[in-house]
Amino acid sequence: MLVLSRKVGEEIVIDGKIRVRVLEVQGRRVRLGIVAPDEIPVLRSEVQTRRNKLAVPSDTDQVVVTTP
What domain range includes position 33? Predict the structure, then answer.
């Protein structure tokens, strides 16, 4: 893991396409601004975890065969 220090107003750039800027620091809370191409989803980790739990893997789908 790369660990960086940034001040308010400073940015990091990822792969020349994603920009992360420190907008505000108040106590233990940091506000970030993220600019990324539309095809790159940007999610908070708790949202991604929730999505993963709700997703149904295709290999567990059941097929029910009925005969007339």
Answer: 11-55
